[in-house]
Write a structure and sequence with these properties.
There is one protein chain. The protein is α/β, with parallel strands linked by helices and 285 residues long. It has 2 domains: 86 residues, Leucine Dehydrogenase, chain A, domain 1 (Rossmann fold, 3-Layer(aba) Sandwich); 122 residues, Rossmann fold. Helix content is 43%, strand content 16%. It has 10 helices and 11 strands. It has a 6-stranded parallel sheet with strand order 1-11-8-7-5-6. A 3-stranded parallel sheet has the order 3-2-4, with helices on both faces. Helix 1 runs parallel beside helix 10, helix 6 crosses helix 7 and helix 6 packs across helix 10. The longest helix is centred in the N-terminal third of the chain and has 23 residues. The chain is globular and about 55 Å long. The N and C termini lie far apart (55 Å). The relative contact order is 0.17. Bound molecules: NADP nicotinamide-adenine-dinucleotide phosphate (NAP). The site of NADP nicotinamide-adenine-dinucleotide phosphate has 26 residues, from helix 6 and helix 10.
Length: 285
């Protein structure tokens, strides 16, 4: 048996087509173009690539992407004031902060300051909390992408044993909440997990986002497991994920490749969050 490879680019294209239609209907109804502002701070080559891809995706679906760039040594106060003025500006329908930010800035403080209504990334504690209590609204884009892929592939989550290798605030924790909300049995592993294999081998669905090349081999999965690779690692041979694809391919039932798996769907999910923040702004007026 060889695992089915998920085509993330195709899934992303389907989402973008739906959003293009929705945006054109919303523009006709509200006579205003959705406008999303991204704040970038300093220079980070991976972030710049994401920004370029997201900007192209926005243009494709009819969302106006605006970028505010700050030097790496910008005082925190300046960023907080900028976020506040974007929160107050009715012409801004969504705010995106490009992470990681330089270490003198508190990500938590920035996330707290973005209005929950304009929070494209779903990082504001109010949106995180809503996800946790099963009142999902603006959900972080990467967890949403994983869920979108599983849904697209008709994978039933109820009662499944799911292992997540990642306990970050932006990936593992919100993803665990989303899966619990769908009645899966969820285990979260991380760098201090004593014996990763002993958990991952029991998973019907293994979702890995450690950023460690070849962390997951065939010895880490059970037969016919579904394997979702969130990891992104730059290697001399190009971008790779956490999964040793050659090894896992013969044993897994379904696998997401890197590149071309979770990544493009994450960008598409950011677009659908932008439509939600736009609706928040225009429909409350
Ligand atoms: N495809 C996409 O759309 C997308 C989006 C966002 C991020 N990513 C990628 O996903 C990965 C994670 O992103 P992130 O922002 O969540 O990064 P992060 O904060 O560095 O999280 C990495 C997680 O993996 C754990 N980990 C690291 N090495 C491990 C190991 N050897 N065994 C078990 N667990 C290990 C870490 O545990 P500790 O915290 O205890 O060290 C942490 O929970 C990165 O490769 C990133 O580039 C992809």
């Amino acid at each position: 048996m060889t695992a089915t490879m998920v085509n993330g680019r195709e899934i992303a294209k389907e989402i973008r087509n739906k959003i293009t239609l929705e945006v054109s209907q919303l523009k006709k109804k509200y006579h205003t173009e959705p406008s999303i502002t991204t704040i970038t701070i300093g220079r980070d080559p991976s972030s710049e690539l994401y920004l370029k891809l997201r900007t192209a995706a926005c243009n494709e679906v009819g969302i106006f992407p605006k970028i505010l760039h700050f030097e790496a040594d910008v005082p925190e106060k300046t960023i907080l004031q900028t976020i506040q003025s974007l929160n107050d500006d009715p012409a801004v329908h969504g705010i995106f902060i490009q992470y990681p930010v330089p270490s003198h800035l508190s990500s938590n403080k920035l996330m707290r300051t973005v209005s929950a209504l304009k929070d494209v990334e779903g990082f504001n504690p109010e949106n995180m909390g809503r996800t946790l209590i099963g009142d999902e609204f603006l959900v972080s884009c990467t967890p949403l992408s994983v869920l979108t892929i599983l849904d697209h592939e008709h994978i039933v989550l109820k009662g499944k044993d799911i292992v997540i290798v990642n306990h970050s605030n932006v990936v593992g924790k919100p993803l665990a909440a989303l899966l619990l909300n769908r009645n899966a049995t969820v285990t979260i592993c991380h760098v201090f997990t004593k014996d990763l294999k002993s958990y991952s081998c029991k998973a019907d669905i293994l979702i890995t986002g450690a950023g460690v090349k070849n962390l997951i081999t065939k010895d880490h999965i059970k037969n016919k497991a579904i394997v979702i690779d969130v990891g992104i690692i730059k290697t001399k041979d190009g971008v790779r994920g956490d999964v040793d694809v050659e090894s896992v391919l013969e044993k897994a039932a379904l696998l997401t490749p890197v590149p071309g798996g979770v990544g493009p769907v994450t960008i598409a999910c950011a677009l659908s969050n932008m439509v939600k923040t736009y609706r928040n702004c225009v429909e409350k007026e």
